[in-house]
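Possible regression after last week's pipeline update?

I re-ran a chain I had predicted before the update to compare outputs. Posting the input and the new output here so someone can diff against the archived version. Not blocking, just want to make sure nothing changed silently.
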Amino acid sequence: MPRIVIPDDYPPVMGPSEAFQSWDAAPQARLYESLPGSEDELIARIRDAEAVICVRASTRFTDRVLAACPALRLVSLWGTGTDNVDLEAAARRGVAVTNTPEVAADSIAEHCLALMLAVARRIPAVDAATRRGDWPSAASVQLMGKTLGVVGLGAIGRRVARLGIAIGMQVLTWTFHPKPELGFDHHSLERVLHDSDVVSLHVRLTPETRHMIGRAELAAMKPTAILINTARGAVVDEEALVEALREGRIAGAGLDVYEAEPLPAGHPLAALPNVVLTPHAAGHTREAVEAGLRMAIENVENFFAGSPTNLVTPPPGPPAT
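New output (post-update):
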């Protein structure tokens, strides 16, 4: 049995899951119910591990971490994002990286729709006022007949686009690699931003996409537009977004991800009435969590059985010296 460590199960999802409880290797796996407070603490937790199951995207596998863990052969990520792993360093050091593609796509797409409706209908503010005994007019925006711009057409983006169509929205899409066979018309990013009433982001965080939505892009949007981000916080220049929301240059935002997570107390976004915030939880339905954790475990089992699944790095060669 390989030495397996889960270094970051906080808040707990892996430990209580049916996937973990029914796993034959669970009794031998070392599980930490707290986040590593530093890179050194992460190294201390996984120094002897042959496989790591990473539960939190905030746990970062830098070249320094990988170099300090010479026994490590596999990092199994729960989720699709890989921006918390230095993939080049992993490949160079013979560490395989796997993820759990598509298992949370439906859950995240539903959450995007919920955020769109919550912002457009001002549901949190109206709910709070009603609870206080007020009877607000609840002036809000109808999404049917409006234009939804989908930026990124992976599994989640495609599902969001179809949900938009289902509620009567016109859909404009942009993606790095257009595929006409998906059935969506490809447009320039400029047109998607300029013409859309709701813009929903679905790109991976890479050097190319970091702050791809900045001051210029926000200025291109309608003053009545809503921005939805369930991708990664750093895809958006957060400082520019706060300015645009404060000054009414866009109407609102629904955010599940942030440049710093957890969102720091007193963050400017938390004081804005035209923003709906959730805690990086779009994929955290019971169904999606269990499916994703089970796949992360299966990726470990399959790797050590000699049939790796869901690799996002090349098959590992001998470790670097």
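Follow-up from reviewer: compared with the archived run. DSSP finds eleven helices and eleven strands in the chain. Marking as no regression found.
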